[in-house]
Amino acid sequence: MKTREAGKAKDAGAKKLPEDALAIIPLRNLVLFPGMIAPISLGRDISIAAAQEAVNAEHNVGLLLQHDPENDMPAREQLYGIGTAASVLRYITAQDGSHYIVCQGQHRFRIIEYLDGYPYYAARVQSLPDPDERSADIQARFIQLKERTAEIIDLLPQAPSELVGATQNITSAASLADFVAGLLELTPQQKQDVLETLDLQRRLDKVLSLLVRRIEVVQLSNEINEQTKERMDDKQREYLLREQLKTIQDELGEFDGSNSELEDLAEAIAKADLPPEAEAHAQKELHRLQRMPEAAAEYSMLCTYLEWLAELPWSSTTEDRIDIAQARRILDEDHFGLDKVKRRILEHLAVRKLNPNGKSPIMCFVGPPGVGKTSLGQSIARATGRKFARVSLGGVHDEAEIRGHRRTYVGALPGNILQALRKAGSRNCVMMLDEIDKLGAGIHGDPSAALLEVLDPEQNFAFRDNYLGVPFDLSKVMFICTANMLDTVPGALLDRMEVIRLPGYTEEEKAQIARRYLVARQLETDGLTPQQCGISDEAIRAIIRDYTREAGVRNLEREIGNVFRHVAMRVAEEGMAQMQVEARDLPDILGPKKFESELALRTRLSGVATGLAWTPIGGDILFIEASRTAGSGKLILTGQLGDVMKESAQAALTLVKSHCAPLQIEPEAFDKHDIHVHVPAGALPKDGPSAGIAMFVALTSLMIETPVRNDCAMTGEISLRGLVLPVGGIKEKVLAALQAGIKVVLLPARNRKDLDDIPEQARRELQFIWLDTVDDAVQEALGDTPGLIIPHLFKEITHEQRA
Fold first, then answer.
1. Which residues, including other chains, have CB under 8 Å from residue 237's CB and lie 6 or more apart?
2. Given the DSSP bridges, would you call strands 635-638 and 533-535 parallel, antiparallel or unpaired?
3. Model pLDDT for residues 80-122, shown as the tens digit of each residue
């Protein structure tokens, strides 16, 4: 097969080219101009065949640039249409089998048509002679090109001296343009453009333009080299002087390695990639330190300051890997329930993914203790692949804790924000500002005012710490705040955050959380295995009902830990192999029940009503007790009631007095008796208007001697017109009613919008009565007593309200 192909190639090679045809060699990255000499490496068979044909026939060879240099076998249409006809001065075959030719460009040509039947590219060509050079415009450009060529040769440091003479001896404008274009460092496409420019005036203009641009680049490069050389000379001089100083100190016995410490500091600052302003400041302070004796009082302080500057994450970041599906899985894996909170977090992450450079809101998780606010922040950090940093703000009352102390003070340090960033080692970490509602102002300033700049995306890109003294960019930090209540958070600070409320858990949710998370965590903490210790669902529910009363699950986990520690002691002491904890075992392990059922306290007595209250640790039920004794008509209020709650009691009594006739109450009864309103748990302060409806019902029940239903609870503010006004904390209050075994909950009608926030279990197990006026409350709470007819006290008010 090889012999037959070689024979065919030989026969084809015997075919002679026409007089007006050339053998074509495609070139990858080389353009040869007329008059120039250049070596060409031949690697392709068609190129070798074309060169050999030109040598054997003593003809010129055509050199054409190909469009794509990576194409090993370019098609004819992939070659440029204008090239250079060159004579082959020498053909060289190296010992390794590679082929080379040395060519001299003769003239330009244009492809007319390609010829078939040759083992190389062959084409009919048209010679393109140079145009007339006698015009004044061409002569002027010719002179300008000579001057510019001499100028750039002078700028080149290693240019041969003969090059200037060679260019000055060129008498043809066309030859000079081709010569200069061949010498310039241009791309093959730029050189091809010059080659294809047949109009001599336009060709001279292009070469002049390229030459002027190259002169500017060379001049700028020379200036940069000079500046670099000067800086290197200064560095060498400084190094020499330091070495001499080190030798002198060593001879005097004063060298202790301090210079090594300064060198480490200088290296750390160089690696820190500081912004220009911080870099200039750091270098200034470093030069001060280098000139300062080590015994100076400011020496150690300045060293510490420069260490802080070098160790802060000025440019160190972690790559965000925001995967919404994975984030959803992580949130569900770490937390049970909290569907609305998880959805808002996923929306926040989705926005960060679609717009990484956007200014996202600062989230603030608000809820009772133990509902998972801090762990949500850790889950967000895990879902995004960021570092997690936590700053506790509880009890902070000094502005310097946020902004840092000035360096003039002894022991000064940056604020907690920058300290957390340094510990995290990343400028785009997730930073949790915990317990933001427990900040306190003192004589050293208000830390909440300092947080205004930290939590404002329009300002925190240039946060200035008092200790640092230079701006630090906090805009990449994902801030998350937590609080138990918002009453103590300043309005300006609250305006910068998006509040996300975390409600308390229902009994069913607590049981699920205990079974999924708490049991396994406490088994591991106490060194037990699931085979050694188990706990039944009934025991978990008994712990929830009888030994804990909270909105979160922190005490629940603590009590489960107490149970497992008891089992661990039995295993370690008695060698017990396995123990299953049941509900009946809890009194022996945890002692008697800590909380009795509220059902035992709810008795059908006149003057007792059940209210609902909100506390920072969740909702609770509240008993309103009213009694009357012989007296002079005084109103006695006890139970550590606040001013607002006292006013609610007075409004409720006035409302009852104003409707003695419909309620069949003798007005003299108020003058002859003292009325005492008491709210149990007197050691706890209580305040707020939401107990107004419960006080009205309790007083009405007392005066008409009719007991209130013991399976209903109520909340709402009242007005002297008998309207029931909306209150807050509906979700927490409803959960407290559900935990206490309440069946019916009376709520203000204008709080109907809060029904969507109430968990599904509570909506399923409770009956909700919506109150427009106190008449609705009286009908529901007192209307089921046999033989009692409750009049419509505020029917006309209701009609007016509906109108």
1. none
2. unpaired
3. 999 999 999 999 888 888 898 999 999 899 999 999 888 899 9
